[in-house]
Amino acid sequence: MIKCFCMTKFDSASSGTARTTSLSLLARVRARDESAWDRLVHIYTPLVERWCRKWSLQQDDVADIVQEVFTGVAGSIEFFRKDKPGDSFRGWLWTITRNKINDFYRRLNRDAQATGGTDGHVALQQIPQHVPDEDSESMTAGDSPVHRALELIRIEFEDRTWQAFWAVAVDSRVPADVAADFGMERMAVYKAKSRVMARLRTELEGLIDL
């Protein structure tokens, strides 16, 4: 469903714009780069799904709401700004998700006044205005946006560079031990971590502060 929508909104005539890795993912999405849109959906779909499941939605309903959320994102991404302290893409995405969940429960109330109305009303009262407090920017959580972004940039690095980065940045190992295990200079381990983190920051600039 989401892929089909992407093909409609981000047509192939404009998908060649701003493809270089020197531009952030957000910049490429705003330039109507179809491949960048696919990356954004890949990175953030598990987070939106997790938010939806908090409110006891069935899987089919979750899938529909996720589709609606990314339809909303595609239609308004150019208006996303971080003008005030505390503004974030995650908060902006949560606002869209919250609105779509609210819409779902309002429809439920209308369609099933006797049996579904009460539950829907309670759910509406419980959905917070502010983004849920959770560690969604961790490199260790497999479905976090950061971890999903790392999956996408993995192919840009040699195996040893990546393994050294992962051992230090994700597994929190001591650089000297990593250097010994991989037959590297300690400085090479630091450089491996620095290179991957620099690429990750470029990819997620404007979306996540690292």
How would you sum up this structure, described in words?
By secondary structure, this protein is mainly alpha-helical. The chain folds into 2 domains: 2-134, Rna Polymerase Sigma Factor, Chain: A; 149-204. The protein is 63% helix and 0% strand. It contains 10 helices and no strands. It has helices at 2-9, 25-30, 34-53, 59-76, 89-111, 117-126, 145-153, 159-170, 175-182, 186-204. Helix 8 packs antiparallel against helix 9 (175-182). The protein starts with a helix and ends in a 6-residue tail after the last helix.
Number of discrete domains:
2
Count all strands and give the number.
0
State the secondary-structure class: mainly alpha
Categorize the overall geometry. elongated
**Superfamily (CATH H level) name of the largest domain:** RNA polymerase sigma factor, region 2, helix turn helix motif
* Number of H/I helices: 10
* Biggest sheet overview: none
Q: What's the rounded overall pLDDT mean?
A: 84
CATH topology of the largest domain: Rna Polymerase Sigma Factor, Chain: A
List the helices and strands and how they pair.
Blueprint: H1 2-9, H2 25-30, H3 34-53, H4 59-76, H5 89-111, H6 117-126, H7 145-153, H8 159-170, H9 175-182, H10 186-204
